[in-house]
């Protein structure tokens, strides 16, 4: 019997090894400290409820309390890190919950709620996965993050500019000359640039419409695949990532005057049996790169105004700042 209990405990630990963590949250959003598992498919509902939006199915999860219904956060920032079930976050600084059934998820439902309720106020909505060159931005995000690097070439060029993170990060065992290392470092550059660009438009963090940021980072996963999780490179990258995430959380929290929820999902691997196949940025580099251009108002728009892996692309009319829906038939992510 004792052996069975031990085996079951290891089994549960393996299934629930991934984590959902709260890095920062305002006093109006109450997360209880406890070891309550949260199903991966309900992560978007946690984000929606914490912002004061309704969900289709009640969430009977004790981790999120009711909070102040009349004072909701101005922003939700969700960072997903693939390739590791947990990071060595400073003890006592975060609240973490076991993540069960780690299926791929998106915050599209939350973005739709924001569009529906605050369409006239053009809130900032940014969803980004650098390793897959996926980006979606609408509303004021188009002007704030117009210069954000999102393609392989842009990411590489940005890293080798004078004011990049390469000048301040302790690379240790990581190399500037390795493509996998550069992918990881470019994601840290994106974190830095998001908070830096937003700091130039601080008034947007003080309006009445809620903002949404959803970032998916796969660089650490690629480091683990290349060097192994017991390697010095993986250990160095993990530590660098923790420091970068802590700084990013502080920056975003402070830009919103302490009225933002910053959440972290760490998952070793998603159950992608029901997910659409996409090419990673490293795979795309080896394939023939095709330019997909969208013509609007008699000119070519940059490919950063829409999400590349969905069939419904929402295109922003930059004159009216209102989204116009356009449907394109597309079965896989294009390579820019």
TrEMBL record:
<dbReference type="GO" id="GO:0030177">
    <property type="term" value="P:positive regulation of Wnt signaling pathway"/>
</dbReference>
<dbReference type="Pfam" id="PF25294">
    <property type="entry name" value="RENR_N"/>
</dbReference>
<dbReference type="InterPro" id="IPR012493">
    <property type="entry name" value="Renin_rcpt"/>
</dbReference>
<dbReference type="GO" id="GO:0009897">
    <property type="term" value="C:external side of plasma membrane"/>
</dbReference>
<keyword id="KW-0732">Signal</keyword>
<dbReference type="InterPro" id="IPR057318">
    <property type="entry name" value="RENR_N"/>
</dbReference>
<feature type="signal peptide">
    <location>
        <begin position="1"/>
        <end position="17"/>
    </location>
</feature>
<feature type="domain" description="Renin receptor N-terminal">
    <location>
        <begin position="17"/>
        <end position="268"/>
    </location>
</feature>
<protein>
    <submittedName>
        <fullName>Renin receptor isoform X2</fullName>
    </submittedName>
</protein>
<dbReference type="GO" id="GO:0038023">
    <property type="term" value="F:signaling receptor activity"/>
</dbReference>
<keyword id="KW-0675">Receptor</keyword>
